[in-house]
Amino acid sequence: MSAPPAEPPSRHARPGEPSHEDDRTKRLLKWILSLDNLDEIRGHPQKVIDLIDEFSKDERMMTPQTMIELGCFVGYSAILFGDAVRRNGGKRYLSLELNAEWANIAQQLLDLAGLGDFVHILIGRSDTTLNKLYETGDVKSIELLFIDHYKPAYLTDLKQLEHHGLIVPGSVLAADNVLYPGNPPYLEYVRSTVEQKREAAKKGPTKGYSTEGMRERTVQSFMPEGDMPFLETVGNPNLVYKSELRQPEGHKDAIEVTRCVGVQTE
């Protein structure tokens, strides 16, 4: 049982064109469904994961080595996702949390779950911590980012990551609470075309946090009044995003899953 040979990497696809990554995912599915022991695989999640890992050795599919989350609270998502990342070959999970008391509680629960050495909680503002990770070279690109912290900072933190070149084709962003309490500025940005973002960038960076459409309680939580982002930037409007809303049936909230699929230079 062996995976098909890898093809040389191709150029980034233009918006609307199939990418090399799309081709690989189709070949992955075709290969798995063609296996003689498919009945033994069916109903066993770990066996499917093992096959994806085997395929990835030759095909160089992206399997996140580092997952980062913005907003740890008491560690629920860090335990859930951290366990999944570790089981599937990841190297570390970075959780950024502003509140030191919450971080302490989360650390104890992570230790209890046996993830204390795998999940690293970094206490402080997300923007300054992200900047430090960039400046030290500790993080060279974003593989998988879970966003669930101060709602007005969703967009400013994303633009800071873009500005530093940490968002690259293949980067995946998962933003929680985009419908409730809601985050219109973030959704508008990741769903905009390159042309729309370039036009908006002509006005320069937004001063402070963009809070349009957000509840007052959301805006005032966690951050002191008058607080400003660490870095004011328009980001990189040339990045091409493919974004999709994931809303479980019966839930009023949803997660926006966004993938960087290329860079538009024309």
UniProtKB/TrEMBL annotation:
Keywords on record: Catecholamine metabolism, Methyltransferase, S-adenosyl-L-methionine, Transferase
Source domain of life: Eukaryota
UniProt feature, compositional bias: Basic and acidic residues: 14-23
Pfam families, sorted: Methyltransf_3 (PF01596)
Biological processes, Gene Ontology terms: catecholamine metabolic process; methylation
GO molecular function: O-methyltransferase activity
Keyword hit for Chaperone: no
InterPro entries found in the cross-reference section: SAM-dependent_MTases_sf, SAM_O-MeTrfase
Family the UniProt entry places it in: Belongs to the class I-like SAM-binding methyltransferase superfamily. Cation-dependent O-methyltransferase family.
Cited PANTHER family: CATECHOL O-METHYLTRANSFERASE 1-RELATED, PUTATIVE (AFU_ORTHOLOGUE AFUA_5G06990)-RELATED
Name of the protein described by the UniProt record: catechol O-methyltransferase
Source species of the chain: Penicillium chermesinum
